[in-house]
Write a structure and sequence with these properties.
The protein has a two-stranded antiparallel ribbon. The N and C termini lie far apart (56 Å). The protein is 62% helix and 19% strand. The longest helix is centred in the middle third of the chain and has 33 residues. The chain is α+β, with helices and mostly antiparallel strands and 53 residues long. It has one helix and two strands. Strand 1 and strand 2 form a beta hairpin.
């Protein structure tokens, strides 16, 4: 019974790590895109401009 409990706890911990990593990456991606601006370059090219500082 103790072995089953330990197995369930380890499985829950590993699943928690695998689910939390993509969520953190999604948050970081949102923050980096949110602080950008788009500019149009010659040749009808849209580019992201990252502010300095």
């Amino acid at each position: 019974m103790i072995h089953l409990f330990k197995t369930c706890m380890i499985t829950a911990f590993i699943l928690g790590l695998t689910w939390s990593a993509p969520l953190r990456a999604q948050d970081q991606r949102y923050i980096s895109i949110r602080n950008t601006d788009t500019i149009w370059l010659p040749g009808n090219i849209c580019a992201y401009q990252f502010p300095a500082g």
